[in-house]
Amino acid sequence: MIEQRLPTSALLVRTFVCVMLLAIGVGIAVALFATKPDASRNAVAAPPPRIAVLAIAPIEIERSVQGYGSARALDSADVPARVGAVVASLGSQFSAGAAVSKGDVLVALDASDFERQVEIAREGIRSIDAQIVVVETQEGAARQTAELVRRERDLAETDLQRVVRAAAEGAAQEREVDRARGGLLAANRALIAAEDMVAGIQPRLASLAAQKALESARLGLAQSSAERCIIRAPIAGVLQMADLEPGEFVQPGQTVARIVDRSRIEVPLRIPASSRALAPVGARVEVLSSVADRSRSLARLDTNNAESQRVVERHKNWIGTVARVQPEDDPVTRTATVLVEFEQDPTRTDAIAPGAFVEARLSDGQRVPRTVLPRRAIRDQFVMVVENGIIRERRVTVDFGHVGAIASTGIADVDWAVLVEDLPTGTLIVLDGSRSLVEGQRIEPVIVSEPAAVSAKDTHR
Q1: Strand pairing of 357-370 and 284-301?
Q2: Is domain 81-110+230-256 annotated with CATH 2.40.50.100?
Q3: Which of 366, 370, 367, 368 shows the shortest CA–CA distance to 57?
Q4: How far apart are CA 134 and CA 128, in angstroms?
Q5: 50-62+367-459 in CATH: which number?
Q6: Measured CA distances, 111 to 243, 305, 325 (Å)
Q7: Among candidates 420, 262, 448, 434, which has minimal Cα distance to 346?
Q8: Which residues pair with 417 in a beta bridge?
Q9: Domain residue spans in the chain?
Q10: Which end of the chain, N or C, is more open, meaning fewer C-beta atoms within 10 Å of its C-beta?
């Protein structure tokens, strides 16, 4: 196949068209670049943002630590049935939530079987007493018999000696000596039998005494079982569990009721292991618990008047003491357990119920000037400090937390962090550490509180 070449004129035309198109594109680009708007000539300098800052001042505050735990009754009792019997009747206060006093009758079981066992044991004791009288009488007769036999044996021995002397002198025959010797043997045999009878009296009396002691023990056990059919409250408190019915059979050891005394409360608090020094035995502890406070207000809903209720949560404080401190720390949570005890009036509507979650505050009682910052001002262990209107980041270390409003700061925060280091008085700290500010950015600080030495007059939750 023969390849055909384009004429020279066609190549020139095509080359000219391509060059013109390229020139036109370059001209358009140059024109657009030359006519672009110049932002620098029209921009107006934006003012720096206004940021709320806190002027730092030393605050006298106690070193404290927050702990959390669940309350439990220090005095409670699971009341068991100590005998197996049918429920005959229930006490007048035997119902869940009822208050009982120590010694009140909770449940009465059928004691008829145990009463019969008491009678059987008493009759057995009477029978043994009669046998003892008979044996003691026999003992007297046996001793008298043994004494008579002993005298007969002495006479037989004397007669034998007389016959032996007579035979030696030729006045008695040999058969008379043998007869006297046989009489002595018979007397010895009778004496042995009599002494054996006397010796057997004491073992019989001991056996009867043992039988009497056994029957006495059975009598005591039967009497105790009969008495245990009346189940009484071992402590004063409120019945947590009471679910028996008359006619129901209870087994020995079965729990028939649970009594809880809310007057003494124990709280196992978990605190940071590094704060053990704040919780020695006997230390004062402030226990906090949320209490629902219902207040009524009138509200108008469209054309109808309706009475509504709004529930306001407030906090109740109790003062307790550290009773015990567990010796080991939890290696997983790095916490220590402190057992706090306090007393309360169980009849109050705001009393802490066992099982309620509570928090507590432990302090050393010594107020020293410290640098205190709102918790929200710290982000990733850094705070934003304002120096001459410029943002600077500064690393801080939190020593411990403080919960409560510090009115002198001029802000309503209730969550504070006490720093290890002391910042200079008057240092400006950005309140909101989560703001999108960068190192070196210029801002206009708005101070919410003037620096002054204040004391932490706080109101805890």
Answers
A1: antiparallel
A2: yes
A3: 370
A4: 10
A5: 2.40.420.20
A6: 21, 62, 47
A7: 262
A8: 373, 401
A9: 50-62+367-459, 67-72+262-366, 81-110+230-256, 113-226
A10: N
The count of other CB atoms within 10 Å of the CB of residue 138 is 15
φ, ψ of residue 18 in degrees (nearest 5): -65, -40
Count of alpha carbons within 13 Å of 378, Cβ hemisphere only? 16
Query: Is residue 66 within 8 Å of 401, Cβ to Cβ?
Result: yes
Enter the tokens of residue 155: 């006479």
In what side-by-side order are the strands of the sheet with 372-374?
Answer: 372-374, 415-419, 398-403
Backbone angle region of 247, left / alpha / beta, with phi > 0 → left and psi within -120 to 50 → alpha: left
Structure tokens at 165: 């002397």
What is the chain's alpha carbon radius of gyration, rounded to the nearest angstrom? 53
Helices within 169-252 (DSSP H only): 174-228
Q: What is the pLDDT of residues 122-134, one digit of tens each?
A: 999 999 999 988 8
Q: Look up residue 451 and give its amino acid.
A: P
Q: Which residue has the tokens 């009477």?
A: 126
CB atoms within 10 A of CB 435: 14
**By the 8 A CB rule, do 177 and 163 touch?**
yes
User: Do 315 and 280 form a contact (C-beta atoms < 8 A)?
Assistant: no
Residue position matching structure tokens 């059919």: 229
Closest CA to 459 of 397, 390, 413: 413
Q: What is the spatial order of strands in the sheet that 428-430 belongs to?
A: 390-395, 382-387, 428-430, 50-55, 444-447
The model's pTM:
0.59
Tens digit of each residue's pLDDT (9 = 90 or more) over 400-456 = 778 778 887 878 888 888 898 888 888 899 988 777 888 888 888 888 864 443 444
Nearest one of 218, 28, 193 to 120, comparing CA atoms: 218
Domain boundaries 67-72+262-366, corresponding CATH code = 2.40.30.170
Question: What torsion do the CA atoms of 435, 437, 443, 448 make, to the nearest 10 degrees?
Answer: 30
Could you please state the CATH topology (level 3) that the domain comprising 113-226 is classified under: Helix Hairpins (1.10.287)
Query: What φ, ψ does residue 290 adopt, rounded to 5°?
Result: -75, 140
Of 403, 402, 382, give the one whose Cα is nearest residue 393: 382
User: Residues for the chain: how many in total?
Assistant: 461
Beta-bridged to residue 272, according to DSSP, are: 335
Given a cut of 50, the residues of the chain with pLDDT beneath it are 1, 42-43, 291-314, 450-461
**What is residue 95's DSSP assignment?**
S
What angle in degrees, to the nearest 10, is found between the helix axes of 112-168 and 174-228?
170
